Amino acid sequence: MAKVKVHVFLKPGVLDVQGKAVEGALQGLGWPGVSDARVGKLIEFDLAGVDDPAAEAKKMCETLLANTVIESYRIEVA
Question: pTM value?
């Protein structure tokens, strides 16, 4: 069984409204050095019964987990 983590973020150039809100809030709370904040999502799951967990996770990302028009993703398999 493999432990899979998929990190999904908006692609560069796509406006990240949540990231901007977090950035503004952190600056307002006294961290003026914060810039270019991006908010993404982390999806973790166990995957069994496949020979190549990374390839299967890639198929999952392309099918469901990421909107590849505006999002990029990174897969970690342990």
Answer: 0.88
